[in-house]
Amino acid sequence: MAKLDEALFDRMAETLYVAVISDILDGLGHRDQVMQAGVVPVQPDRRRVLVGRASTALVAPQYETVEQPYTAQIAAVDALTPGDVLVVGAGGAPGVAVWGELFSNAALARGARGMVTDGYHRDTRMILDLGFPVFSRGARAVDISGRGQVVEAGRPVAVAGVTVRAGDIVFAEIDGIVVVPAEVAAETVERAFAKVATEDDARADLRNGALLGEVWAKYRVL
Description:
The chain is α/β, with parallel strands linked by helices. It is 34% helix and 24% strand. It has a single domain (6-182), classed as Ribonuclease E inhibitor RraA/RraA-like (Glucose Oxidase, domain 1, 3-Layer(bba) Sandwich), CATH 3.50.30.
């Protein structure tokens, strides 16, 4: 199997999709790896696919304004490396924006491929102009300062019902977001490419008039 690097991430984005990866993970015993509905792409482009290695951060509640409210969040962004996807668990600060346009510019400059959060973002127009892939619960202009703060980076975080660990593979598109545990990533990707090839053959037979039952019996994919 090819190395899990940016070249492979690009190939995955071109060929794979959330459903096929989820199916492979089901077969490997990882049945709860798709995030809950509601975390969606900011960019309204059905062809946009985000693939990369997870870099994690956790937001906790904050009940007063402090002099340096963004220290840990800034550090998490500055620590990003090429191929990373920043994944922010925002359950500790519901209803506030944990991401914005300047953070997006900083992450893009570090080589990050995108950002995923079960919280909110702001600066939508500027993020759209920048083209940096962001997946969130939606737009809300309320600042995180005095309401929440990043307290941990690099630790496992719960995001929209899925535990994400640094180094896991994140695959996000219009159908949802699936997280591939690092320990099964290579096998999952290899099997996913094989399943897509089988589905291509099944699709061709269906378009040539084969009955669905016949195609299922032949290929065992749907």
